[in-house]
Write a structure and sequence with these properties.
transmembrane, MetI-like fold, AA_ABC_transptr_permease_3TM, transport, amino-acid transport, mainly alpha
Length: 226
């Protein structure tokens, strides 16, 4: 067996373990929390009072206008100067959540605004409150439109978690870096890490296609009934 292949086989288990224990949980938690934050931010920007809407716009402006790596450094390395000490994983989770929240808020805001005004009026005409109209009428229609961009955001987040290595989270990429430090084979190890990211992204892309087809059928059913 070639030495490079043996090295890849020997390092496969620790790399997959790092992906399972750190990369995937960090991705799922960041996306779930970021999506919730994005929904709140989008609703505040669309329907909230002007002061809260201004705060939401400022948050989105700052996060979208600065690099994610800088945001992680500010949280993990900068906040200790203010007496705020965070472990690596929580710091990365906060950074990714804030970043995802800003980007998903723009997606959600756009898809909510794309729902025709007549849908609001129809919901109000049958006695729904604003919250009921949002939950039962607006969000179900908006979610169908939001699936592709939100899925792309999720897939990008899987790859972006490699930046957590910069704040010492022992995820997939940092595990590869640690193995490189002992084997002195950066090309082989980084290619192997890239292949694992590629495999994860490919699986998620396939799931995205299936999800889009399902929502397309659901949308066609609704249009047929209307």
């Amino acid at each position: 067996m070639p030495p490079w292949l043996q090295l890849m086989l020997d390092s496969l288990v620790p790399l997959l373990w790092a992906a399972l224990v750190f990369t995937i949980p960090l991705t799922l938690l960041s996306f779930a929390l970021g999506l919730a934050l994005g929904l709140v931010t989008a609703v505040v920007r669309l329907f909230g009072p002007r002061p809260l809407s201004a705060i939401a716009r400022f948050y989105v402006w700052v996060i979208r206008g600065t690099p994610l790596l800088v945001q992680l450094f500010v949280i993990f390395y900068g906040l200790p100067s203010l007496g705020i000490l965070l472990d690596a994983f929580p710091a990365a989770l906060i950074g990714f959540t804030l970043n995802v929240g800003a980007y998903t808020s723009e997606i959600i805001r756009a898809v909510i605004a794309s729902v025709p005004r007549g849908q609001w009026e129809a919901a109000y005409s049958i006695g729904m409150s604003w919250s009921q109209a949002m939950r039962r009428t607006i969000l179900p229609q908006a979610s169908r439109v939001a699936v592709p961009p939100l899925s792309n955001t999720f897939i990008s987040l899987v790859k972006d978690t490699s930046l957590a290595a910069a704040v010492t989270v022992p995820e997939l990429f940092q595990t590869a870096q640690r193995i490189v430090a002992t084997t002195y084979e950066p090309l082989i190890l980084y290619i192997e890490a890239a292949l694992i990211y590629l495999a994860l992204s490919s699986v998620l892309s396939a799931l995205q296609v299936r999800l889009e087809k399902r929502f397309a059928r659901y949308g066609g059913f609704l249009e047929a009934r209307t």
